[in-house]
Amino acid sequence: MANRQLSHKVADLGLAEQGCLKIGWAESRMPVLMALRQTHAARQSLKGMRVAGCLHVTKETAVLVRTIQAAGAQVAWSGCNPLSTQDDVAAALAAEGVPIYAWHGMNVEEFYWAIDRTLELRPTLTLDDGADLIFSVHNRHAELAREVIGGTEETTTGVHRLRAMAAAGALKYPVIAVNDAETKWDFDNVFGTGQSSLDGILRATSVLLAGKNFVVAGFGHCGWGCAMRAKGQGANVICTEVKPTAALKAVLHGHRVLPMDEAAAIGDIFITATGMKDVIVRRHFEAMKDGAIVCNTGHYDCEINLKHLDELTVSAREIRPNCDEHTLADGRRIYVLAKGRLVNLAAAEGHPSEVMDMSFANQFLSLIRLAREGRDLTVAVHDIPEAQDQELAGWKLRTLGVGIDQLTPEQIRYRDDFASGT
Length: 422
Ligand code: ADE
Known about the structure:
Bound molecules: adenine
Structural class: alpha/beta
Helix content: 40-55%
Number of domains: 2
CATH architecture of the largest domain: 3-Layer(aba) Sandwich
């Protein structure tokens, strides 16, 4: 039965009022999504849809959840990372009647339990950040896939995995790669990750960044954002890469590029942003300076091999929230932030609302597209239409009070005339 009553499980309903204030703060900084809410609440564009979501429970996500509901859909939600849930926000959503299963510090078993609860909604649409919900539908609840019209995916790691699934013929319904929209990854991944990752590092350590050797593993969009912001704080940025073009970009951005084997010995702060496992392993810990700080901003917690560090550790203790001190046999201390999970969401609040405004506008418009045309889409990973990107960017600019030029008819003719030359 589609409409069965789902309940909720959160840490403390008593935090609801505080969460509600936070959500209101985010709403005041997400004008594009709020305008979409108004339009599609009137049209009831998602009426009849059942949306299961698995995405970090933050104040910005709550704005998205409220918007999906306002457009007429039923919703059930879980967090997509055991350490990223903001308990006050989860409480506020639960108090509003949202079937939400999320609390900070859940273990892996509870994580999948929470996803399973949201699947009791028998979704027609799935919304993912990291693809754990889609994988659960495909691998553990395959009987539900028939009813799913389509899904959306928020993050680079999730999109990579889903493209691999599609290539192997294993994907069972169409997915829209929200991550690959220009208005998502050129903004959220760069400016969002840059600011929120440094925010997480500072909340967990309060160290001075100026003059530090700040090692960024991976110079994709997320690494680029972290490097840019660390440089802006006066750090000496060192990038490590495996891809020649990315390494070259880092060089031309003015960063030093080194293999991790060399960077390990000189870094003061390390952040991984690669989407790859085992970026920092035993030999790197063995080379690190006393006091080195290590953290990750990639989706999964496999980039720093904490098992290797544990094997080298003679004693460990939490010395501040989200900051664990590992003492090695020779007395050197290495500090791990947020247990190697996303430092920007576990130790801070994730990307600022202003950036998530565009990411979640893309999520919301993608759900509407799937509700309208999903049954006609091929079972593949689909991109966001270019027109949507330009429309959203134009909208965002107007909310910022920024005007731009327009091509004249003559300029358009010139642009389209392949014969004109010198
Ligand atoms: N991913 C990164 N920042 C986020 C935020 N503020 N809300 C939800 N997902 C995020």
